[in-house]
TrEMBL record:
This is CRISPR-associated protein Cas6 C-terminal domain-containing protein. Residues 155-182 form a coiled coil. The lineage of its organism: Bacteria, Fusobacteriati, Fusobacteriota, Fusobacteriia, Fusobacteriales. It comes from Leptotrichia rugosa. Keywords: Coiled coil.
Amino acid sequence: MNSIILELSALENKIIDNTKIYGLEIHKKISEMLEVEDKNDLRVSNIFGEFFKKRIELEKNEKYKIRITTKTQEKLLKLRDQLFQLAINEENIVIGEGIFQLAGIITKNDTWCGEYDLRKEVKNLDINKFNFLKKINLKIVTPILVDGKSIFGFEKILEIILKEVESKLEEAEIKVLKEKILNFITVKREFYREKKVNLLNNNIKKVYIGDIEIELYGYYGEFFLVLLQYLRYAGIGEFKEYGFGEIILKS
C-alpha cells in the first residue's frame, strides 16, 4: 500500500452537496486517471476536515488536501506522472462539481503518507520475541461500517480487522487468531462519541468515532500492531474506498 496527499487549489467558489459523500466523486476521478477497474485497488479520503459536513464550501484560491492510497507503487507513480503533466500544462482537475488545479504533492507525513507491505512485515516478525511491549491509542477518525451501520466496541472491531486481512495471512483460522491476540493485549480504555449525521443520501444518520487505548505485548501483540499499521492505509469496513473506516495510531 502506498499513500500520498494531493494539495488542490479551488478555481471558483462552490457549494458541494456532501450528503452523497464527495469521496465517491474523488474516487471516480482518480480511477479514471489510473484506469482502475477494481475499486478495491484505490482508496481516497474526502477533503480533509470535511467528511461529516453536509455541504463543502469551496473558496476560490483556497487549498484543500485529499489522501490517495494505491495498492501498488506502479499505480502511484503513474498518478504522480499524470498530475505533474497536468500541472505543467496548467490543466484543470474536475472532481464532480469542484474545479481545481494541482498545488502540490506531499509525500512526507508520518500520519498520512508512506508505504507498507503487510506480508513482508508479518514475515519479519520474530515468533520468539517475548519482551515486546507497547502502548498505543487507536483513533477511529471516520466511522467503521458493517451492513450499513456504524460499529463500535473493541472486540467487534477486532473481528472486522481480521476479516479484512484474512486473505493476506497464512493463519486463516480467524477465531483462533482472535483468541491469541486477545491473550496478548490489554484494552485500557475505550471512548466513543456518537454523531448525528446525514451520509450516503440520508441512509446513515448516526455514527460512532472514538479512541481505544491498548497495551500490546509479546509476539501476538506485535503481530496485531502490524495489522493496525497496514489498516492505516487500507481502511476498515464498508465504503473504506471512499474515506470510511479511517484509523490512525498514536503512541
